[in-house]
Amino acid sequence: MESRLENFRIRKFIIFYYLEDKSIMITEPKQTDSGVPQGAFLKRHMVLKQDGSGLPFMPEDFAVGADIGIYGRQIRITDCDSYTRQFFEKCGRQMAPALDCPSDNFVKSKVPVMPKRDSEMLQYLEKKLGGGKVQGQKQFLDNDRKVLNFFASCDGRPFIVNYFLADDTIEVREKHHQNDGYDSFAKLLRRQKLPESIEVKQPGQAFIGDNYVTCDEIMPGGTLNCFGHIIRIEGVDKFTQDFYKEKYARHFELGAHAQAAPRQAKEPEVPAHNGLFGGEQDSLGYIYKLVPDRPKCDFFKRLDNDKKILRFTARFNTRVPEDVDRRFIISFYLMDDSIGIYEPEQKNSGITSGKFLERRVYKNVNNGGKNLTPTDMPIGGDVTINGHNFHVLSCDDYSKQYLDSHLN
């Protein structure tokens, strides 16, 4: 690699000399961030000197401070262990003291350089190690968890200003209510010291943050410049009122943000049944429930009035020549108040006989949309069924007896 720190590298080795067979083994210990793998640099075997003598290395060749050449590499002996020193002492040779191992530029670059210990840096280092003292420690201990609460507004929107007496920091929160039309951001200003001025001045002059807003600068009915947002103080809570009255002899009005009045609940509008699919009870089930229940009928009414049918004869209320002579049989089923209309056959009328109106429950448009009942079809009277206006002519004997006994 092309690096000014790695134009050369000093590597460290451990040399093992085996007296039994005069063999040598060299290993290289691990060095942090060296990039050189740990392991055997030279496997154990007998190594011959490179001076041309052809003799193997002897123990006296490995003295502290001596340079030896092994396969073209120059290795300097800097130290040995205690066993080796004792061995040389028994042999009548004193081993030299240990030498300092030289270091290269790469090793020097890994040595941390301590910055200048000024007061701020000293405090930073102490905090980093888990110690140090809090600035204004007495203020923190006296006013911990004491918060001044101000009710304020900005551009017609309610805000809550929290002033923390422990460290003179300010937090501005927006008061939201349901469907107020604004994004529900929790904070307009996170907890921090609020600078008195946000002007960016020329170099050499005072910068932003030289002076901060403190609690003694907040006045009743005053304003706070929160980075361009002008926040007007409108009221405080009881604790804040007592705090200013005792310490600064100022009177703040108690206040609170008025809760927005809930919207008037609108009654759900049930659309009229179009008569195309199912009955009216089926359609109402889909309005009140996502998965509707099966409509329940009046069991006892169906049981008591099973196969009881009132039949009326009727004609159209019209002057159209083709429809004047048409006759209809209106069947009223007492078991479920449904109505079916049948048109009987008439010779040479040109109209096919059969079912004129399907059996189902119909509404009386002349009586507030209530279900049609037998009382809505008096003999000699008119009735409107599904948009068709009929004139009731007569009824059968059973229908007459039923109406006389139940309605009179």
Protein described:
The chain is of the alpha+beta class and 408 residues long. The chain has three domains: 14-108, PH-domain like, CATH 2.30.29; 145-247, PH-domain like, CATH 2.30.29.170; 285-407, PH-domain like (Roll). Helix content is 17%, strand content 27%. The chain is built from nine helices and 19 strands. The strands form five sheets. A six-stranded antiparallel β-sheet has the order 9-8-7-6-11-10. The protein has a six-stranded antiparallel β-sheet with strand order 15-14-13-12-19-18. The chain has a three-stranded antiparallel β-sheet with strand order 1-2-3, with no helix packed on it. The longest helix has 11 residues, at 397-407. It is elongated.
Count of beta strands: 19
Q: Which assembly state applies to the chains in this document? A: single chain
For this structure, the CATH topology of the largest domain is PH-domain like
Side by side, the strands of the main sheet go 9-8-7-6-11-10
Number of helices: 9
- Pairing-aware structural class of the strands and helices? alpha+beta
Range of strand content:
25-35%
Order of helices and strands: EEEEEHHHHEEEEEEHHHEHEEEEEEEH
Silhouette: elongated
The count of domains is: 3
Low-confidence stretches: none
Q: What is the share of helical residues?
A: 10-25%
Task: Explain the layout of strands and helices.
Elements: E1 14-18, E2 23-28, E3 39-45, E4 67-70, E5 73-76, H1 82-90, H2 105-109, H3 119-128, H4 137-143, E6 147-154, E7 157-164, E8 169-174, E9 187-192, E10 223-226, E11 229-236, H5 238-247, H6 280-288, H7 299-304, E12 309-316, H8 321-324, E13 327-333, E14 338-343, E15 354-360, E16 363-364, E17 370-371, E18 382-385, E19 388-395, H9 397-407
